[in-house]
Every structure is written in C-alpha cells, then in structure tokens.
C-alpha cells in the first residue's frame, strides 16, 4: 500500500529528527519527542506590511520567520546548512487547499533537554480574526479531529479579536478529550520589532509538548487561561486576555506556578467526541440592554433573523433589565421562550455574575429565561451555538444543558 503525502512528509521529518543531536548540558536525552500540529489561520501574528497597512498573508513568509528564529527552531535540525529567513522552502505538501510545511524541531525547552517536533498546517485562507465565523470553526475543528491520532497536541494560531470565541467553542467541541489544544496569537506581528508572538508560540509549544496538561486553553503573555473562561480586555496591553472570574491555570514566571496543579486535567487516551458540525446560518443573536430599550426594539432585531434559535441578553448588574409593562420587554421575552428560542441573560459587568437577587431576576426565571451566571459573552455565545447545532436535543434538553457546567465555563 502506498503512503499518503502526509505520511511521506512525516517520514522525512522523523529521519531528520533521528539524526538530530540529543545531548544537552544536563546529559543525554533519549526520550521520545512529542509531535505537535500548529494550525495557522492568519490574524495579527501572521500579518505583513502591505500598501494598505498590516494584513495577514498566505505566503510561506510566516513559516520562514518561525524556521529562522533561534528560540523556535534548533540549529541542529539543519545541521548541513544554515537556514536563514530568505532561504527557499523546498518541500511543502498540499492538503486539500491547505499547506503543510516541513517539520521543525525546537531547541531544548527545559533543564532535561526536552525538544518538541511540530508541523505548521496553514489554512487555505488567512484572515483577520474579525472575519471568523462558525464556518471557519468547522474547518479548524475538522482538521484537529482528522489529525487527532497523528499528533500529541495542537496549537491554533489565531487573530486576537475572536481568539476567546475560538477557544470557547473548541472547549465544547473537544470536551474531555485527552490532549492539549492551545489557542494563541499576538498583539504585534512576527514581522515587526517587539513582537510578542515569539514568546506566545514558544509557551504554547512548551505546554503542548512537555506538560501533562490536557484540554483547551489560551496561551498569552506568559499565562495559560481556561479556554471557556477568557475574554479580550485590551487591544493595547500584551496581557490582552483575562479570565475575570477564575485565576489563570498556569503562570510562566521564573518558577512555573499553577492555580491548582492537582486539578488540571491530565493527558489520557480519551478520544474527542464525534465531530459536531456547527450551524453556519445566524442562530445566536446578542442584544445589549440600554436605557430606553423596549420590547418592540428587541423583537424587531430577532424577527429580522428567521434562523435565530437563541438570544443573549447583556443586562445590567446582576442580570437586571426593565420589566415594567410600559417597556414591553418582559412580554417580548416571554413570547420568545414560548417560540422555543433560548433566552439567556448575562451581565454587562467586567466581572460578570447573574443571580436572581432582585425582583427582575426572579421574574425572568419564572418565564423560562436562563441565568448566565458568571459566563463571559464569548462562552455564552459558544455554548449556545454548540447547543442549537445539536439537532437531537429537545428545547427543554437544551435549556437543562445550558444551566449545567460542562467544560468549567461557569460557576453555578
């Protein structure tokens, strides 16, 4: 039986890996290297200068930058010749419309001399992450699912604007799976001075290639955040992401520290769930409550989208919104629930928490509106898309599952 293009490339990379020196200053290191798949989607990290400003490009420039960086590629990997940024890329394989580049090997990443092998699989379409949709999530999820048995972990290279949404949906699509999936990016492109992308990629490879951690996380600015707990809080700070209601899982300080090392999910042979294809029509709408909001305004937005199956209401404080009869909001929400549209209330606050303390909250519960507890908007959006895409569930089952913490996304 003839080998596939991917298997042939793996074979060439493994041969190169076998000839790589494995002796560190701490002694011989003969343990098997983990192999990681890095999926490139575009975003700031892969952007290059263009006449119209920085934009993600789908040339081999991104790969060549990584290949020539001393923190990400061992010089022993190219023992026979010095590979510079300008050196051509001789061997690539087309996977559908995606491009698989030659395998790379990191320098030693720890005091035990651990190295990590990794492939860069570039999507056929590099995009600004503001253009990310459930269709692209389906593509990324399918690639991870199809390659699950070939790799020890995955790194998703993403733009930052929707990075937390991507991490949240992957958390639901790959819940309880026994390998790490890290999502990372950069505030400054690799093509520019002072890029933070180098460290974010290095930390991602460290997590996926050397640690026992499994699950979906965000690696950014020397931290690992839980995938379904994070939100982007700054377009300027290198620490662009926070998890407002829970501490970071891992801090890459001089000494690596953990929130609770014993509670981190461990690698296992547990496979991912069957691949779920997300609905790509607009199914989840988000409505921000503001002074003067009326039920007529609310319903007009929802009625304009016939495919709507769920609505996120970003309410005041602990989930409060106008329920007086004059506003008509309560009556509109009741009609939506009766039409079997999932209605979820989350908080507009930076540190969210929704609980039925006031009359408004208790009244909403009585008509079937669901509390979002301490969900971020990203996690609420991802969870609802995941739920409405599961055609086998009844409306009541979707309501019940929404109120159940599934991937650590909320505290009830």
Automatic annotation (TrEMBL):
<feature type="region of interest" description="Disordered">
    <location>
        <begin position="1"/>
        <end position="24"/>
    </location>
</feature>
<dbReference type="InterPro" id="IPR006034">
    <property type="entry name" value="Asparaginase/glutaminase-like"/>
</dbReference>
<keyword id="KW-0378">Hydrolase</keyword>
<feature type="domain" description="Asparaginase/glutaminase C-terminal">
    <location>
        <begin position="284"/>
        <end position="402"/>
    </location>
</feature>
<dbReference type="InterPro" id="IPR040919">
    <property type="entry name" value="Asparaginase_C"/>
</dbReference>
<dbReference type="Pfam" id="PF17763">
    <property type="entry name" value="Asparaginase_C"/>
</dbReference>
<dbReference type="InterPro" id="IPR027474">
    <property type="entry name" value="L-asparaginase_N"/>
</dbReference>
<dbReference type="InterPro" id="IPR036152">
    <property type="entry name" value="Asp/glu_Ase-like_sf"/>
</dbReference>
<protein>
    <recommendedName>
        <fullName>asparaginase</fullName>
        <ecNumber>3.5.1.1</ecNumber>
    </recommendedName>
</protein>
<dbReference type="InterPro" id="IPR027473">
    <property type="entry name" value="L-asparaginase_C"/>
</dbReference>
<dbReference type="InterPro" id="IPR041725">
    <property type="entry name" value="L-asparaginase_I"/>
</dbReference>
<dbReference type="GO" id="GO:0009066">
    <property type="term" value="P:aspartate family amino acid metabolic process"/>
</dbReference>
<dbReference type="Pfam" id="PF00710">
    <property type="entry name" value="Asparaginase"/>
</dbReference>
<feature type="compositionally biased region" description="Low complexity">
    <location>
        <begin position="12"/>
        <end position="24"/>
    </location>
</feature>
<dbReference type="GO" id="GO:0004067">
    <property type="term" value="F:asparaginase activity"/>
</dbReference>
<feature type="domain" description="L-asparaginase N-terminal">
    <location>
        <begin position="36"/>
        <end position="260"/>
    </location>
</feature>
<dbReference type="InterPro" id="IPR037152">
    <property type="entry name" value="L-asparaginase_N_sf"/>
</dbReference>
């Amino acid at each position: 039986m003839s080998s596939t293009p991917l298997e042939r490339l793996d074979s060439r990379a493994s041969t190169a890996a076998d000839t790589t020196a494995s002796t560190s200053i701490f002694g011989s290191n003969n343990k098997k290297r983990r192999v990681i798949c890095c999926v490139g989607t575009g975003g700031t990290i892969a952007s290059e200068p263009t006449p119209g400003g920085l934009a993600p490009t789908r040339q081999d420039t991104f790969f060549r930058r990584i290949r020539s960086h001393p923190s990400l590629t061992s010089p022993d990997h190219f023992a026979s010749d010095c590979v510079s940024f300008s050196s051509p890329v001789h061997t690539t394989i087309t996977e559908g419309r995606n491009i698989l580049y030659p395998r790379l090997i990191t320098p030693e990443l720890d005091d035990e001399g651990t190295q990590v092998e990794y492939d860069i699989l570039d999507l056929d379409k590099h995009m600004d992450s503001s253009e990310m949709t459930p269709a692209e999530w389906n593509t990324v999820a399918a690639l991870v699912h199809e390659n699950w048995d070939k790799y020890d972990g995955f790194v998703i290279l993403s733009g930052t604007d929707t990075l937390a949404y991507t991490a949240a949906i992957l958390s639901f699509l790959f819940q309880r799976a026994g390998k790490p999936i890290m999502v990372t990016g950069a505030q400054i492109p690799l093509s520019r001075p002072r890029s933070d992308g180098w460290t974010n990629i290095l930390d991602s490879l460290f997590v996926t290639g050397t640690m026992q951690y499994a699950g979906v996380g965000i690696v950014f600015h020397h931290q690992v955040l839980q995938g379904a707990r994070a939100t982007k809080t700054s377009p300027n700070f290198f620490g662009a992401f926070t998890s407002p209601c829970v501490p970071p899982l891992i801090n890459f300080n001089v000494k690596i520290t953990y929130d609770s090392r014993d509670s981190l999910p461990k690698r296992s042979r547990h496979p991912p769930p069957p691949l779920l294809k997300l609905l790509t029509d607009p199914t989840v709408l988000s409505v921000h409550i503001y002074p003067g909001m009326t039920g007529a305004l609310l319903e007009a937005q929802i009625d304009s989208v016939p495919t709507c199956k769920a609505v996120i209401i970003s309410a005041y404080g602990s989930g409060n919104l106008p329920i007086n009869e004059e506003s008509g909001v309560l009556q509109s929400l009741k009609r939506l629930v009766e039409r079997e549209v999932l209605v979820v209330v989350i908080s507009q606050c930076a540190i969210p928490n929704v609980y039925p303390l006031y009359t408004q909250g208790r009244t909403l519960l009585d008509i079937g509106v669901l509390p979002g507890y301490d969900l971020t908007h990203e996690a609420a959006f991802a969870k609802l898309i995941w739920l409405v895409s599961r055609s086998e569930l009844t409306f009541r089952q979707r309501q019940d599952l929404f109120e159940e913490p599934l991937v650590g996304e909320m505290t009830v």
